[in-house]
Amino acid sequence: MSNAELAVSYAALILADDGVEITADKLQALIKASNITEVEPIWCSLFAKALEGKDVKDLLLNVGSGGGAAAAPGGGAAASGGAGGAAEEKEPEKEEEKEESDEDMGFGLFD
């Protein structure tokens, strides 16, 4: 990550922590106030558009969740099942097939 990207990232985090809307102008003002001169204005515009309408704190808290999109349909089913008084059933996990390696084929890279 370049210094420009890092500076804009930190500026966005500062704005989000203060509960201020993240805009390109506010990012530039914060970077200018910190005496960082190597940041081109395009970085501020890109970050502002990428974070527009998003809760940065929520993004940080859910970085490792990985299943955010898949959780929505299951949540609706659990809510409707809970209303009927039925116990929530857990779906069995599907095992992933192992990929064959070179060792399984009887030859190696240097044979």
From TrEMBL:
Region spans: Disordered: 66-111
Keyword Ribosomal protein applies: yes
Where is composition skewed (Gly residues) in this entry? 66-85
- List the Gene Ontology MF annotations in alphabetical order: protein kinase activator activity; ribonucleoprotein complex binding; structural constituent of ribosome
Name the keywords, alphabetized: Ribonucleoprotein, Ribosomal protein
Query: What CDD domains is this protein classified in?
Result: Ribosomal_P1
Instruction: Spell out the subunit comment.
Output: P1 and P2 exist as dimers at the large ribosomal subunit.
The record ties this protein, via HAMAP family, to:
Ribosomal_L12_arch
Protein name per the record:
Large ribosomal subunit protein P1
Q: Which organism is it from?
A: Tuber melanosporum (strain Mel28) (Perigord black truffle)
